[in-house]
Amino acid sequence: MRVLVVGSGGREHALCWAIAASPLCDALYCAPGNPGIAAEATCVPVAAVDAEGIIALARRERIDFVVVGPEAPLVEGLVDRLEQAGIAAFGPSAAAAALEGSKGFTKDLCARHGIPTAAYRRFRDPAAAKAYLRERGAPIVVKADGLAAGKGVTVAATIAEAEAAIDDALLGQRFGAAGAELVVEEFLDGEEASFFALVDGAHALPLASAQDHKRVGDGDTGPNTGGMGAYSPAPCLTPALEAEVMARIIRPTVAAMAAAGRPFKGVLYAGLMLTAAGPKLIEYNVRFGDPECQVLLPRLRSDLLTAMVAARDGVLGSYDLRWSDEVALCVVLAAKGYPDDPKRGGEIRGLEAAAADPAVTIFHAGTKRDGDRLVAAGGRVLDVVACGKTVAEAQARAYAAVDRIHFPDGFCRRDIGWRALAR
């Protein structure tokens, strides 16, 4: 098969790395890709959200199968456009991608079908939203309904903080159209975890669990980010809890979407809160997480490409996947100033030495070539992933690799995996 991966981050590098290993893959392209992906695939400078450009590229290179990495092109209907053009694609339709594209849509679906989640209300009027706040009390959560690049959620400790978030979105239009409607919901207490399933429209095949670290600083301090690191599996999601998540959250969602005429195909990523009353859905994403993908795929022993084709073709019913028992742990190297104002252009050296350990894989998230130099070109720059028999072993290998990288304009958290180690 001739395969095209759409996207340019660490997730897409991990996808290309896994797909390139498939015996089914004869040729691999990535649009637009990055310098790390260029070692696995032919990179073509077409933006992920340029549907016309992606279709033209797929036709020109006789692509058999397209894998869409990021959420924005999925929500905008890239898979629909590709399939209409006769090009097989992995990922949900725009109608199914509403599970991520509209938090209100997902909450309403959960309410109708008894899927456990936080109590909530939807608002377009600031005064009504603030009245609900005062009725519920703090802590409380305020979310932009649409895609806001991971920055649309405020976990407010006080009513004043929640009111400021409401004004920011509805009056200040901070998130544009994505924040024209808000979901205000109950604060859930517990431990967060992520669970992934491969879905073919009717069947859901469990993948694996992970835990990520959203805050920028050690000890979960500072502002939220796109993710400073992750590990898989998450010890807090026991086999019994995973079975409960599949039975009460994932499978009912798949059935509800099919019944609504929006059959979901692709990766369903459930952000969960493990509460005293059991697992509850915080939100859905409709693609692999980033950096969760970077710790899932090194543990996958089956052929990823075959599984993706089976999901697209609707034949996951009798499918099975094999996983390594090892732990994979990812440390994100970010540019100083991230997440607010990352410093771009800093030179990166020492990647060969860092990857000398066969248990270590380095995925590029935000890099570019400047002549012979490799430099930072984004907030999250590199994903250093290591495998080990335990979280402690994987963590030690990952940080040993990080310490071999020369990136003076970069930084990382030094406590990735702390929850698992604390257990």
Average pLDDT number: 96
Report the β-strand fraction as a percent range: 25-35%
Q: Stretches where pLDDT falls below 50 for ≥5 residues?
A: none
Q: Biggest sheet: strands, sense, closure?
A: 9 strands, antiparallel
Total individual domains:
4
Task: Walk me through the topology.
Blueprint: E1 2-7, H1 10-20, E2 27-32, E3 42-43, H2 51-60, E4 65-68, H3 71-75, H4 78-84, E5 88-90, H5 98-101, H6 103-113, E6 120-123, H7 126-136, E7 140-144, E8 153-156, H8 159-171, E9 182-186, E10 191-200, E11 204-212, E12 215-217, E13 221-224, E14 229-232, H9 239-259, E15 265-275, E16 278-285, H10 293-296, H11 304-313, E17 327-335, E18 347-348, H12 351-354, E19 360-364, E20 367-370, E21 373-376, E22 380-388, H13 391-402, E23 410-411, H14 418-422
Parallel strand pairs: 1-2, 1-4, 2-3, 4-5
Antiparallel strand pairs: 6-9, 7-8, 7-9, 10-11, 10-15, 11-14, 12-13, 14-17, 15-16, 17-22, 17-23, 18-21, 19-22, 20-21
Helix pairs in contact: 7-8
Structure description:
This protein is α+β, with helices and mostly antiparallel strands. It folds into 4 domains: 2-93, Rossmann fold (3-Layer(aba) Sandwich), CATH 3.40.50.20; 125-180, Dna Ligase, domain 1 (2-Layer Sandwich), CATH 3.30.1490; 191-313, 2-Layer Sandwich (D-amino Acid Aminotransferase, Chain A, domain 1); 327-422, Glycinamide Ribonucleotide Synthetase, Chain A, domain 4. Helix content is 30%, strand content 29%. The chain has 14 helices and 23 strands.
